[in-house]
Amino acid sequence: MEDDALFSPPVVAASVAAGEGFPAPPPDAPLPVRMRPASLDELVGQDHLLAPGAPLRQLVGGASPPSVILWGPAGSGKTTIAHLVAGSTDRQFVAMTALNAGVKDVRAVIDDARARRRGGGAPTVLFIDEVHRFSKAQQDSLLAAVEDRTLTLLAATTENPYFSIISPLLSRCVLLTLHPLGNDEVRQLVRRALADQRGLAGAVTLADDAEDHLVRLAAGDVRKALTALEAAAAAATAAGRTDIDLATSERAVDTAAVRYDRDGDVHYDVISAFIKSMRGSDVDAALHYLARMVVAGEDPRFIARRMIIFASEDVGMADPTALQVATAAAHAVEHVGMPEVQLNLAQAVVHLATAPKSNAVITALGAALADVRAGRGGSVPRHLRDAHYQGAKRLGHGADYRDPHDSATGVVAAQYPPEDLVGMDYYCPTRHGAEREIAERVPRLRRVVRGVDPAPGEEPR
Length: 461
Fold this sequence. Notes:
This protein is an alpha/beta fold. It has four domains: 5-177, Rossmann fold; 183-252, Helicase, Ruva Protein, domain 3 (Orthogonal Bundle), CATH 1.10.8.60; 265-354, Zinc Finger, Delta Prime, domain 3, CATH 1.20.272.10; 380-449, Orthogonal Bundle (post-AAA+ oligomerization domain-like), CATH 1.10.3710. The protein is built from 19 helices and eight strands. It has helices spanning 31-34, 55-61, 78-86, 103-118, 136-140, 143-147, 161-164, 167-171, 183-195, 208-218, 222-238, 246-252, 265-279, 283-295, 300-315, 321-335, 341-354, 360-373, 435-449, and strands at 14-16, 68-71, 92-97, 124-129, 152-157, 174-177, 205-206, 243-244. Strands 1-3-4-5-2-6 form a six-stranded mixed beta sheet, with helices on both faces. Helix 11 crosses helix 12.
């Protein structure tokens, strides 16, 4: 669920008169809504944004606030800040969500703000929730009004703005990054909700282990913690109790939602951590990131493809069976499917993470590709050219070719690379795992193939 989607701004642009802010929440509003801070002094967390003169304080109370983009995870306070801005005096506050608003809505707000400005009216603040969902054209429509301060833009996004916001708009705004709340901060807000008259007003108590459970599953999202607290309080009240124990809190929160967007930067962060954990041979961390992707609904084919690549890129010939295991896991994805195939994926992850590592294959390929792109190579030696078509032999194709199968050792002296690459060593095997034996064999093979007298006992095997 997107940030604050339970109580997001109106579906279309909705003006709020100067000084009125958002409508006061009704008594039956969700607990997270009722417990919104009424002032910056009640805001918990984001201390890095609350210093005197900081952009956030200017935005809430300053006479001429800058346009701001609020970037942070769900439950970090983006919509709360919008409420605080709406509650400040002498401003016309307009809220919309990018889920439903379009260019027409934006232009209507801009036209009204321009007319109000010319008439000496209150300045306009436009709040756009989930601004990352606006198209490029919709974001373009804001540029001129933000540039000449026809309005002050306050935009909220859970997605990396460097990916989701066009550069011209980003450059016209101050970017404020909100951090996930720490466990102590979430705990403070849970306790405030238990006691505050806007919240549960002391009607129930919360056991220490139940509180720990709610804080842990919230994972920095205070809205999630307060929603779970409200559900647990309702369950306890229905059972005729005034205390919330661990069992009650566990029933109220069955599964923690995983912060994961397949199209956003978190997707790339998790898969990056997954690959690097396997590369670092940390099997436990690799399994954790696999579990995060599985629970979040990541396409198992994507996971399997990345493991197939990893098997050659990071394990290589140190464990030649790694590619077979990864390919078998991909086959299982196609023929078994979820949820059972997660066992096959986990087995492959364990194999890849615990396997000896070598990047000699990708390094060798990279060096060969670099030479080809640089124009090195030249013609294929004549004795290696195709001699099967009519007239090829008259051109000398295949002449003097020596078949290794005719040699007792299976290896013969011959020139295989083009002239200007003779003696080039691309593949440099490590001494990790099964590649140790290859590292001992390759120099012997090169000596024979290149016609260098082998050292005593160095016949290829």
